[in-house]
Write a structure and sequence with these properties.
Elements: E1 3-8, E2 16-24, E3 31-35, E4 53-60, E5 67-72, E6 75-79, E7 93-101, E8 111-113, E9 116-119, E10 127-128, E11 137-141, E12 148-151, E13 154-155, E14 164-166, H1 170-174, E15 178-181, E16 184-190, E17 193-201, H2 210-225, E18 233-239, E19 245-248, E20 252-257, H3 265-280, H4 307-324, H5 330-345, H6 355-360, H7 373-376, H8 382-396, H9 402-415, H10 423-434, H11 436-447, H12 454-459, E21 463-468, E22 473-474, E23 477-482, E24 485-491, H13 496-500, E25 507-511, E26 514-515, H14 518-522, H15 524-527, E27 533-540, E28 543-550, E29 552-553, E30 557-563, H16 566-573
Parallel strand pairs: 1-11, 17-18, 18-20
Antiparallel strand pairs: 1-2, 2-7, 3-6, 3-10, 4-7, 5-6, 8-9, 9-15, 11-14, 12-15, 13-14, 16-17, 19-20, 21-30, 22-29, 23-24, 24-25, 25-26, 25-27, 27-28
Amino acid sequence: MKLTYKLIIETPSTHQVRVVIQGKKESGEKSLDFFLPRWSPGSYLIREYSRHLSSLKAETANGERLFLEQTDVSTFNIDWNKSELKNTKDADTFTLSYNVYCHELTVRTSHVDDSHAFLHLPTLLMGVLGKNITDPTIELSFPPSWSKVSTGLKDISVKREAFIYTAKNYDDLIDSPIEIGCQETDGFMAGGIPHDVAFYGNLLPHKENLKEDTKKIVEHIADFMGGYPYEKYTFMTHFVPGLYGGLEHSNSTALQFDPTAITNRKGYINYLALVSHEYFHTWNVKRIRPFELGPFNYLKEATSKLLWLAEGLTSLMDELFIYRAGLITMEEYLEMQKDNLNRYFSVPGRKFHSLDDSSFNSWIKLYRPDENSNNSSVSYYLKGGIVFFALNILLAEKGKSINDLLTLLWDDYKKHPERGVNPEQVYKMVEEVGGKDIREKFEVMTSTTEEIDLESICATAGLKFEWDKSESPWLGFDPEFSGDRVIVRAVTLDGPAYKAGLNAGDEIIAINGMRVLKDRYNDYAKYLRANESYTFMISRLASLQTVTLNVGVTPAKLKAITVADKDKAVKVFNP
């Protein structure tokens, strides 16, 4: 089926995009069912994009109204038999139009205001149930004050003032976000392939060369993977304070990052890792993928136990790539691993939620965090990356590395691009590279909650753990502040606050009769003593009450991962 789309932005301050879809039904067809995706590939949560729709209308080519009915939360039926048409000539040709409200700036939603338009196309473009939409085109209409369009879509405009693009099919079309405005644009060539770079937002003065470092990441990963699986690539970055994230696409990525972090070394390293992560998804997820992730059913959850391959392996490689590309030192790489491990050790949910479970339940857990999430679950990004970090070290003992597993995964994709992989296939590849014993250890790490002896594993890579075992007091809850007021945001399982009966949402009024506000709470380590009991006055649901809290000792944290055998460490992480 052939469809043409037009996106019209007349008054950006209203945050409205008018969508016009034109097509022609086949002779004899009585109705067509249109749908708007309920979720976006790469972001595993039903988001109900149709909640932002309004003013739906269907017409024939000669302007007569067609019967249009919403049949489900995200599906809409055009029925010719129910339409009261006076003129049936050209009645098969139709126009479906509607408005979409776009005012949420994330990588998986659309945002339109006076400064720009970021169009995440699953939020805007309807498909047709049971129809293959081939060679769709999309035309953009926007205010003349905006001068630039950045997208991975193929430009087929014949006039300079026109903005018309195409894709192979509906899946590829909505997999191509669009940035429109006056964004800073640049680019570079890598492997003879053009790579566009677009920056929206403001950056503070800094000393980094974002374009050149991005190019180094691109060249290193593409060389590692054996080439560029696209004809053009586009990086779109929103630099907005407080934002962080990314979403992968087949030949582009949308990134969001806090511009203030670029000005310090650790923050900039995290930016490079984000670029590396989303770019590597070009191979791992957009091509190598769990079999549930394509072809897509955009109206139902695509549950998979293998998101630890999609995101965990990518979380390992993003940091490994920037180390291997020479953008960070071994010490900086190990500092990142120390932070990863400390985050992992601080999550009680790792004892109850396996990687398989974390993957399968992503639709109801990871993207819907609450005050108990850390106690009940673990991120497949975090634990997945750590498990592949451990696997790489275990493989080094056999003279192999994660490189060998990636080679098998990529070769399998090239032989069978039409399908993804299942867990058993991945386990067999691990066994092919490292042997049966490595496979068994790896399966335990992914399918059970058994603790992983990471310190012993790291020792075989020439690494040493240095622990900070301070005796500082620990209350066992995370605070949030409403002005000067101290509110319990989350309580750590089996910690002092948990045992005392503190709840998320409790306001801490006083400790032993002494009023507690933000500044005094932040200084609690100066006046509270570990292993002593204190009376906390709290407000819970507007009722005053007291609880007795026995202050604990702060759990040990990794202070550093140091290199005991540099030759061995380099061979493990950069073979």
